[in-house]
């Protein structure tokens, strides 16, 4: 059993994988040298799939390119690195990998927030594969869930009320929080994932949050 299986699937409780979609060999070749070899290895072993009953998904970066462009296409980030969406949550949180900066951007569309995480130094010191492993093994289900207005996690209740997600759907608020909607179970719907995130990108000004890690190293 490898570290991914021990730490991520078993210890962190994200296993087993679900709805695995085989990654074509031409996709592996396309992203070779752009994404860590370790991620491509995970793709080949597990496919693009959901984890923790659909709370977390690994994705085809090409399919999520419209969402990436909608959220950071007109920001300074696009001039700093070459980014790819490598994973997302059930509520549309996006995890980006920068070719030169690693897991350096997380986007929380529901609240129109972008979280930078300057890790170029770590990438240079430890390498892309090690940083990719740390990314997966540091994920926590409780932080990935979304809380309602009473600070109660929503995922399990949404799963029960709305049914399982697939590769192309997410749980989204209608009306959107940016339009004054409330984070309540009854306001959640199962929506087309990429389309919904593109729409959310145009509803409110994006907030680029402070890079706490970078400040800590000053």
Automatic annotation (TrEMBL):
Residues 14-108 form the GAD-related domain. Residues 132-203 form the T6SS immunity protein Tdi1 C-terminal domain. It comes from the Bacteria. InterPro entries: GAD-rel, T6SS_Tdi1_C. Coiled coil: none annotated. This is GAD-like domain-containing protein. It comes from Marinospirillum alkalitolerans.
